[in-house]
Amino acid sequence: MGAKLRVYKRRIRSVSATKKITKAMEMIAASRVVKAQRQVAASTPYASELTRAVTAVATGSNTQHPLTTEAERPTRAALLLITSDRGLAGGYSSNVIKAAEQLTERLKAEGKEVDAYIVGRKGVSYYSFRERKVVESWTGFTDSPTYGDAKAIAAPLIEAVQQDTAEGGVDELHIVYTEFISMMTQTALGDRLLPLSLDKAAQESEESSKGEILPLFDFEPSAEDVLDALLPRYVESRIYNALLQAAASKHAATRRAMKSATDNAEELIKSLSRLANAARQAEITQEISEIVGGASALADATAGSD
User: Fold this and answer.
1) What gap in Å lies between CA 33 and CA 21, rounded to an integer?
2) Neighbouring C-beta atoms of residue 206, cutoff 10 Å
């Protein structure tokens, strides 16, 4: 019985040490998600207003711009997948990868080739393990992305959209990321960034501006030059906002996963403590029985000698 009690105590110490680690990680994730939420809230109005301005230019002119004009027969699409560099976040990365797989299958069913651009080590590992081609990847900043990271990601994507498909360009740009809705709810979704869907953009702009009518603009020097300047900023801002949404979602998922792990550790410690107490009681009972049995045998031996 002594050996069993030692095993239980050793397991309790081990689980208690794990509980301290998961509790610390839960607190760190909780502090990071608050910061990420603030960054999302700060970046969203800029992205919305920029979308509104691009929509106004595109709808207020007859300019045929490659970033706003639909291809007659699109044959190639770029897909930007935003995952995490780290694990311990429950089903966060697997959910967004699953959404990317579904979007990829839909695009292929439409007869389009898909070029993959990956953010985060989890996505890179997923594609590498399956020996799938990745045009370009970025890692090391998913927990705390900056606008510079978004610019670095946007540059090759914009270049691909502006190139002809025969030269390795694409007709469409899609992005798959995890939208942060609340601390308990994060949703993996896919969205098309380019060509800009004017109807959808106008609807989003109207919602963000609380129903205000898009203003009329005079374009200097020309609408095409304005689009050349605004659309790259539009892509960068949307990617930056998606990176921030993904970071906030990842921290929330980590917090939830670590809280669940901490709660499970507490339950396991309680269970092991009950087993240890039972083993200790059984050990004491056995010792008492041995003492009583020894005393009885001694008394019988003494009585026999008399």
Assistant:
1) 18
2) 15
